[in-house]
Write a structure and sequence with these properties.
241 residues, alpha+beta, 11-stranded antiparallel sheet, 20% helix, 49% strand
Length: 241
């Protein structure tokens, strides 16, 4: 009986210590986010592809953008290069708004769908959002690109019509976020699937930044099935005022 009690006590102590370690790890990720939250990417490379219901590519948009501060200290964006289905449309994008919009037909007068996406602008690592974020560490550790990470599941309550739910992988040695996956709950009415992925790492100046962001989704527009794959690559970060 004493052996059973000792084993149970050891298990409880291990469970408590693991939870405390995991919560401290999440807190470290929040600190890292706060330290670099003022950085702005000076360059973005974007790709936006649409596929039909049979998986055939129906449109592909590529762009290269440069971001800088104007005389008033505001961040402005310039289109350096843009192509649509292989055709150079740089001049059109420089004169217009760069294209874009909700690929599933939202936006415009459809404020409901637009508001459901607005919460994606918020990070679960933002210190000001922590009272709205519920975090659950998942037992066990894994490796991403040679980095040993701890997995967390989270629910992020936002002011939009959908909450952000997802998973975050954090470096167990440094507490730095490595990978973030987010979806919406509930999904907007035109979507059947949606995932946003963010990858983090150190830049050439040894600062923690978001290197890449991807969007994957499927939905229906005017009874036509569409799959969306979008990628944004960030570099040349600079501090904003």
């Amino acid at each position: 009986m004493r052996a059973v009690a000792t084993t149970l006590l050891a298990f409880l102590l291990f469970t408590v210590s693991t939870e405390v370690f995991s919560n401290a790890l999440w807190d470290e990720a929040v600190k890292h986010f706060e330290e670099t939250s003022s950085l702005v990417p000076g360059r973005m490379e974007t790709r936006f592809d649409q596929y039909n219901g049979r998986g055939r590519l129906v449109s592909s948009e590529v762009a290269e953008l440069v971001l800088r501060l104007d005389e008033s200290g505001e961040v402005v964006t310039e289109v350096v290069y843009a192509s649509s289905n292989g055709d150079d449309v740089t001049d059109d994008r420089q004169d217009g708004d760069g294209g874009g919009g909700n690929p599933f037909g939202g936006g415009g007068d459809d404020d409901e769908d637009s508001n459901m996406f607005s919460g994606l602008q918020l990070s679960p690592f933002d210190p000001e959002q922590q009272e709205r974020v519920t975090v659950t560490p998942i037992a066990g550790q894994s490796t991403i690109n040679g980095v040993r990470v701890q997995l967390f599941e989270f629910v992020h309550e936002t002011d939009s019509r959908s909450d952000n739910t997802g998973r975050a992988w954090i470096d167990v040695e440094t507490g730095e976020p490595v990978l973030l996956e987010v979806t919406l709950s509930p999904l907007p009415r035109l979507l059947s699937e949606f995932t946003m992925r963010q990858e983090f790492g150190r830049d050439e100046n040894d600062r923690l930044v978001m290197n890449r962001m991807e969007f994957h989704g499927e939905g229906t527009l005017l009874l036509i099935r569409r799959r969306i794959e979008s990628e944004l690559v960030f570099s040349d970060y600079f501090p904003s005022p």
